[in-house]
Amino acid sequence: MTDVKLFRKADQDLVVRANGAAVQGLVNTSFSSRIGAGIGVFENCRMEWTVTYDEVLFILEGEFTLRTKQGVFKAGPGDTLWIPEGTWLIYEADAPVTFFYSVAPVTGSPTTGIAQSHPTAPADSSAA
């Protein structure tokens, strides 16, 4: 068992790269054996992929498009997408979109399936 972890937004590297994405697998195999999670930003991004895990996307800011064999799903702030393992898809975002994601199993995702360290903040001991 590990300790509670607090990941501050200001400590995360969410600068969009040349591929149109910045994704941080904050909850990863370095301390979780079951679930992975993180935050990401897509901009001018079109990524084709077949997911090897179950995934939940929660859109925080911007407009996000998910293309699947089932059809096109447009999601905006406050919307949640459930994507089952084995789904062929295309993630798309023209303008910046910020999202939270969670995957299971943790080892299925390229961003959470590797042990990596991210800055964390300590608990506020004065609030106890």
TrEMBL record:
UniProt lineage: Bacteria, Pseudomonadati, Pseudomonadota, Alphaproteobacteria, Rhodobacterales
Pfam families hit by this protein: EutQ
Protein name, UniProt field: Cupin domain-containing protein
InterPro entries to which the protein is assigned, alphabetical: EutQ (IPR010424), RmlC-like_jellyroll (IPR014710), RmlC_Cupin_sf (IPR011051)
